[in-house]
Design brief:
This protein is α/β, with parallel strands linked by helices. Helix content is about 30%, strand content about 15%. The chain binds flavin mononucleotide.
Length: about 350
Amino acid sequence: MSSVWDPITVGRISLPHRFAMSPMTRSRAADDGTPGDLAAEYYSQRAALGLLITEGTQPSADGQGYLSTPGIYTDRHVEGWRRITQAVHGRGGRLFVQLMHVGRMGHPDNPPHHRLPVAPSAIASGETLHTRNGPQPTPTPRMLTADEIRATIADYRHAAARSIEAGADGVEIHGANGYLIQQFFSPNANTRTDAYGASMVNRARFGLEVAAAIAAEIGPDRTGIRLSPGSRLGGIVEGDDHEALYLHVVEELARLDLAYLHIAHGGNDALLKRIRAAWPRTLLVNRINRPLEAAMADIEAGLADIAPVGRWALANPDFIERFRRGAALNPPDASTFYSAGARGYTDYPRLADSRPAI
Ligand SMILES: Cc1cc2nc3c(=O)[nH]c(=O)nc-3n(C[C@H](O)[C@H](O)[C@H](O)COP(=O)(O)O)c2cc1C
């Protein structure tokens, strides 16, 4: 039986235990998408989590949907991320940049270019998004042409190269939570009739081509991918064939030899077990809303190799030490998840900070 305290090698990196930091958008980058020094402090404070998967980071200008999310495609972005990777490495942590293209989950008010969001098809998500001018419905996006799909794949590839140039240990492709790749998977967001739509194999194609392009660019052993089978975030309703689609995707990803597969898991354990059986390498399972007493359960049951944690890591820079000692955790403050500045970002206390002075 594996223990959460067993070390593990993932692609080119060695990790001291089986926890990791789940990707979390924190919306504190500059308007041009450059992450600041506070982000270097935030991530390096959490280096003991071993593998830090960053907030969703746009691979291109059109990939941005939310306010103040970072990018990784310009020289300034690379400089900003380099300060972060150096700070994290200085404290012994490892960092994968999560590449997130939001697809239709955007609004022209948010990115500096103010263009309409792009998506597999011109179908609005039906969701409301926080914008510069308050909450607004997401608009009907513009459908990507076949040429633009090729250009978008090239953008992901370029962003992966720039992540490595910035000192990242790898990238995680965000194929989950209703963003561009899952929009291609889902028949209620993708009604294309070309090679990227209609059949299950065609709907899977875009995500697989992104993965293949990134693996070719930076090496499969520095490439991970996150999927969320069955998730309805972003107005997604997957087809009746969604289990077959995910098993096809996992089998094709396995051929690429990627460093890891990361499942954001909302509940279908039967499918998770089939994915586990079909995936020959490291499997990360982030069980949403998992109770603390079950934090180690998937590792001990052999259902996962690594258990990324989200909000516990956000609110506890010393989560690992607290968990080892059975100490109480700081509760996360949702009101500062996406706010500005240090409050609720870099000022969560460590255990030592709250000890009474002698
Ligand atoms: C503030 C916040 C931001 C998030 N942003 C992202 C993101 O950028 N990319 C992503 O894949 N998941 C994102 N998530 C989802 C988390 O990675 C994780 O799956 C979720 O919080 C459930 O895990 P938990 O119960 O351990 O927090 C976010 C979650 C939170 C709370």
